[in-house]
Write a structure and sequence with these properties.
By secondary structure, the protein is of the alpha/beta class. It is 34% helix and 20% strand. It contains eight helices and 13 strands. α7 packs parallel to α8.
Amino acid sequence: MKKLILIAGPCLAESREVIDETARALSSFIAGSNIDFYFKASYRKANRSSIDSFSGVGDRRALEWIAEAGTKYNLKTLTDIHLPEEADFAAEFTDCLQIPAFLARQTDLIIAASETGKAVNIKKGQFMAPEDMHKAAAKAASTGNTNIMLTERGTSFGYHDLVVDFRSFPIMKASSYPVIFDATHSVQQPSIGAESGGKPQFIEVLTKSAIAAGVDGIFFETHPNPMNAKSDSATQLPLSRAEDYINGIIKLFNFVNS
């Protein structure tokens, strides 16, 4: 049976305590499950709605926290990069480099990430058609790295909303690479205020729909106390709900792929 890919963690490495608590909980939630899991946290948020928004504690410090959690709880790790020169540095600490959605057309960035030899997750730009992701994947594969994932995170609809077009999953899967659904960013309302808003009540129904449509994995952000999170507070799933959410994902995924 096909193995589920699951990417989860806090939006931002905002403190060592948040990283450790979230990684510890997630490692216990997936214990004994036959899934391909990545613990996710951004070491810096380069894309913020406001100049006053918190962007990070320092790159090396944050990456050390992520790597520490990965080693401590035996988890593969994933983080975003924003510039080609960040690729080698971030690759020292993590197992997978993620290309943010707004940067999915940046050829030099994709190639730099792929040349590290680490897994690469390319998030589809909110402005891109799903078939455009075949070209992004081809850029990564041109380096000889075929450990590539493509992630759907919603498409801009008007000025402050996103929609998920479920036709994108089979279109992106035609690339032959695994397709992931980003369940929490897809319910975001970008730049609706000083910080992005969101409609988290739709996370679960979109997740179920994406699994039924044949995705290979799910991406979601979770935080011990989303209301106090320093990034994406409107859409991160409370950590207290993550275990039931993961169990539901696994059951439905196994049913659909049995």
